[in-house]
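Problem: given the chain below (435 residues), write out its structure.
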Amino acid sequence: MSVTGTRTDRITTAVQDARTGLGEVAEAQPGFLSQTDRERLLVELVALEAQVVELRMRTLAASADVASAHGARDVAGWVALQTGTEPARLRSELKVAASVDRAWPRVAEAMARGALSLEQARVITQGLDALPARIDADARTRAEVHLVGLGTGEMDEVPEGGFGPRHLRLLADRILYVVAPEVAEAEEAKRLAALDAAARAKTSLRMRPLGEGVTRITALVPDPIAARLATYLDAYTSPRQHSLSTETGQEGAGNPDAERLPQHHARGLAFCALLEHLDPNKLPAHGGDATTVVVNIDHDQLTRDLGAAGLLDPLQDGEQQISAAHARRLACTAKILPVVLGGKSEVLDLGRAQRLFSPAQRTALQLRDKCCRAEGCTIPARWCEAHHLDPWSQGGKTDLADGVLLCSFHHHLEHDPAYEVSRLPTGDHRYHRRT
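Solution.
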């Protein structure tokens, strides 16, 4: 029996006709069209794209057997391999397709006629999928109709073309107040609590030195924290802030060039200024000591603004070289413990006067040891504990020569009678279980 004229054949023919038609105008120049025709063409192209995406989503959702036949993890992965596209983008479409196919036919219908974009459909289905389980089918239908109408512009007092994804997201978050106002307040409180917990679970901050004097900082933080940071940074980047500080004769953090800098660059400089102006006396204790920036610099270089200084760097577990000018600036805005060579310094060897190593001594140990001195251990010095080589209880002194940094694990082994400790010529410690 011939399958000519079946729905499947019509789909394939429609796609082939569309590709053939577009191929025929590949050489045509839109610039020769009138402004009115180009305006209409741009709108129609967006609608056509929505229709193509909807058909692709529908086909992806129905093609699990394709992945199975080719041993692919999923159909999105197979399509990506065949076409050179990003599998993540196709999997994102597949996720929307699954949601639409499961429960939201009006979203699919609007996309199929080019009235709703993929981005709009994604926001709408996310909002609809988040509806609480106690909302009945009638309220769910009204929610879908309402959000689709907002997206397509087919409602009164809605802009022509509908709301974009950003506005739709806000409206989708508040849809309960439209379709079920009697439970909206309680459900909104639960939703926000769940969002807060999820945001904290995802919170992270990574720092990766890239060389050339810069480090990449990548962070995921809850939205309210990001808004707070943006508020602080905007205070530093405000040209008005600079003009006010100039008028009053006070030293201000405002950037007079903020209006001429790209926003990302201005905010980056503002972030540097924010850190340099933190009050270290209000920061938590760090490693048992006050939070301190340690700079190692020759006294002449510090006073003459020449040469280089060493900054104790927790990212690289050692020292990084900074300019003397940078060291001078840090000394004005942060709590600096200068290890000034050739200059007046703190007394580090306290002898028997004190059992515990002082903050200054711990800093000197960090500069010397860099990390845990157990053989092969790489725990950073800032996480280590100061250990007496000769026990203080047996007459040992609280001096640098008698101190060594060990991580908590190896510090416990140091005092564990089940282990024998030997000191290597390098100063590292090696441990053997006694037999």
